[in-house]
Specification:
This protein is an alpha/beta fold and 296 residues long. The protein has helices at 14-23, 37-46, 67-75, 89-99, 117-132, 145-157, 206-213, 216-238, 256-269; strands at 2-8, 27-29, 51-55, 79-86, 136-139, 163-171, 182-185, 243-250, 279-285. The strands form two sheets. Strands 2-3-1-4-5 form a five-stranded parallel beta sheet, sandwiched between helices. Strand 2, helix 2 (37-46) and strand 3 (51-55) form a beta-alpha-beta unit. Helix 1 crosses helix 6. It holds the Pfam family RapZ-like_N.
């Protein structure tokens, strides 16, 4: 059975992600107690179910600590992917304020009856931290619901059981993506933003591509990033990783980083030598669709 476990910080978009799996034809269960996960999988398997998406959060408190061992058992018998959604504290506070929802850990125990929202968020981060290392992490701070759904659809289409490499463009003025494993700063390259014709365009537009591809520093930066990734990919695989996010950042996340992510995707998707290593490549452009706010 193909199992996708959706977890992460409350308010980061788990419901949006779960609905995307439901639209893709998965059996979906929200807010499942940790202790029932294995029995759910067993019962659905007897019924012939092939695809399951389950959302589990930290509202069960300390029982979440049992989840890594349960996932280890399930992974030995099924295809298992863990998706961890997160967002910065300011974004989470804004979302809870706008929806007037109560955080699940507020008042979840006598010790936290009077916990502030920020204290509840911090406690939840601490409870869920052990899951991050084995998960595909997505920072939803600066992306809208439709972008998250699109990224989930990409994961649904990805059948790779090996290493998933995500190339993501972003703008430093909105912060470095929290899920980034490798970060390349390309702000030192000439910026199309200062050209009146190119300013409203993006790295997807032909005029911007032609501008950047004729600059020696851009060509050199692209080659250096490719060489670094090609050298170290086998080591990341040997380390047992399932996910690797390579973030390419420029000032606004509109021109240079988008162009280079597109170039990197084209290069690595055409490398037949990597096919034997069971690596799949995905691309994201955080700022191009960046509008507030994701509903939880």
């Amino acid at each position: 059975m193909q199992i996708n476990l959706i977890t992460g910080i409350s308010g980061s978009g788990k419901s949006v992600a779960l609905r995307a799996f439901e639209d893709a034809g998965f059996d979906c269960v929200d807010n499942l107690p940790v202790s029932l996960l294995e029995s759910l999988v067993g019962n659905l398997e007897k019924e012939g179910s092939k695809q399951l998406a389950v959302a589990i959060d930290a509202r069960r408190g300390e029982s979440i600590s049992e989840l890594p061992k349960i996932l280890e058992n399930l992974r030995s018998q099924h295809e298992l992917r863990v998706i961890f959604l997160s967002a910065d504290t300011n974004s989470l506070v804004q979302r809870f304020s706008e929806t007037r929802r109560r955080h699940p850990l507020s008042g979840s125990s006598k010790a936290f009856d009077s916990a502030t929202l920020i204290e509840a968020i911090d406690r939840e981060r601490a409870l869920l931290e052990p899951l991050r290392s084995q998960a595909h992490c997505i920072d939803t701070s600066n992306i809208p619901a439709h972008a998250l759904r699109s990224w989930i659809y990409d994961l649904v289409k990805d059948k790779s059981l090996g290493l998933n490499v995500v190339f993501q463009s972003f703008g430093f003025k909105k912060g470095v993506p929290s899920e980034a494993d490798l970060v390349f700063d390309v702000r030192c390259l000439p910026n199309p933003h200062y050209d009146k014709i190119l300013k409203p365009l993006t790295g997807h537009d032909q005029a911007v591509k032609e501008f950047l591809e004729h600059i020696p520093e851009v060509v050199s930066m692209e080659k250096d990033i490719i060489q670094f990734i090609e050298k170290w990919l086998p080591h990341y695989i040997a380390d047992g990783r399932s996910y690797l996010t390579v973030a390419i950042g420029c000032t606004g996340g509109q021109h240079r980083s988008v162009y280079l992510v597109t170039r990197l995707m084209k290069h690595f998707q055409n490398q037949k030598a990597l096919s034997d290593l069971q690596i799949s490549f995905l691309s994201r452009h955080r700022e191009l669709d960046s509008i507030p706010v994701i509903a939880a």
